[in-house]
Amino acid sequence: MNIILLGPPGAGKGTQARHLVETRGMVQLSTGDMLREAKDSGTEMGKIVAEVMAKGELVTDEIVIGLIREKIETGGGSGFIFDGFPRTLAQADALGELLEATGQTLDAVIEMEVDDEALVARITARSTCAGCGEVYNDLTKPIPDDGKCTNCGHTEFKRRADDNEDSLRTRLMEYYKKTSPLIGYYYAKDHLTRIDGLAEIATVQQSIAGVLGAATPA
Ligand code: AMP
Description:
Elements: E1 3-6, H1 13-24, E2 27-30, H2 31-41, H3 44-55, H4 61-73, E3 80-83, H5 89-101, E4 108-113, H6 116-124, E5 126-129, E6 135-137, E7 157-158, H7 165-179, H8 181-188, E8 192-196, H9 201-215
Parallel strand pairs: 1-3, 1-4, 2-3, 4-8
Antiparallel strand pairs: 5-6, 5-7
Helix pairs in contact: 2-3, 4-5
The protein binds adenosine monophosphate.
């Protein structure tokens, strides 16, 4: 089963994707993570994307589709969770074509609804474990008092360079201009389910499980 988690930055897509990886053995395809890896590797492509990402703008469709193509062609076990991809209509079309060409289907698109004020508060409070990438949030899921990651015990945590208010405003604008049209696109394709992304993490997990259960072929 292949699904898309759709929603603005800070909606909780990464947190939910990690849960699906742990509980269902699905494969998370986060273009944000792939681009951060490229950036850290210091390659030519990494240098190009670093500046764009720091500003909060979108990297070109060509680069992002290229990254996803490689992954889709190598196959995805229990299915892919597309996290942060597609972000434009061109990417959505490309994804449809890639899945079709490799004999795969898109089974659900889950829109995680959140309001903008909550996003700004969430994002400026977020950090991740430097060891395993577990996501923490000063407001909703603080780093434990003993300073150790609950998942791997690591004691270092980092904040994303683009998780600041300036960059976030641009990321939100990019979302509304270029990504939010995908809601209508997938609605028209009869793939879309909306869930409340502001609920407790466990409640959101249950909502997603409900959608996946309904989408499982009989
Ligand atoms: P994310 O981790 O999903 O919030 O992505 C971080 C940044 O990576 C975004 O602000 C964009 O600059 C870039 N990015 C990630 N995914 C995409 C995509 N599908 N298309 C274009 N740019 C992307």
